[in-house]
């Protein structure tokens, strides 16, 4: 944060309560491509059949003209989200509570509201957290309540410069994974996510200081959710996740799970490396 663009938290908190409504249709083509991209088991769902959970991350996304995008590929600041004058924006985590399922062919409506804007001081400087609440409806019926946690930070500390934390523990259930550039490109396309750290290696390395392309937080969340579903044979009704450290496209990584009470604790981690995302899944 520079002297030219001071962070006026009182001004930014004026966005609290602001709402946005967006609509979309969950088409068969999207369901087919999502199923193929995440290599989900079985056949892709047909019209009228239940769609994979977390496919809603692909729906009703802002379609901002290319000329109005910022240098990082995100929409320029202002509008629905507060114009936080910190250049790095990341999806830090979230929580989901399901009351139903989306089906292929559904007309989907998302009502979004800014719930909170908070300024904190981190090890690398100012951090601004924006909490967004989403309500997802299908054919007029509620399906999902979601909390989305966004964090903004300064550009003075490169993304890959922090000291690596200790290696992650091993789960009782494990699955080896690899997220290459093709997977990241396809997921960016499905979610209409223009953030360049996920597909533009030169930008990710030379501008944001990462050692490679960054694996999307929502993609890791979807992989862990799918892992939990396979382990229990049914999708969780409540699910939360939080980013802990970046994961890169050239990293072999592992999905971990451990029984915890009536639910599952899940996490992703680089092979023999640090924790990248933590999650909790509950069925009751």
Automatic annotation (TrEMBL):
It comes from the Bacteria. Residues 58-145 form the FAS1-like dehydratase domain. SUPFAM superfamilies: Thioesterase/thiol ester dehydrase-isomerase. This is MaoC family dehydratase N-terminal domain-containing protein.
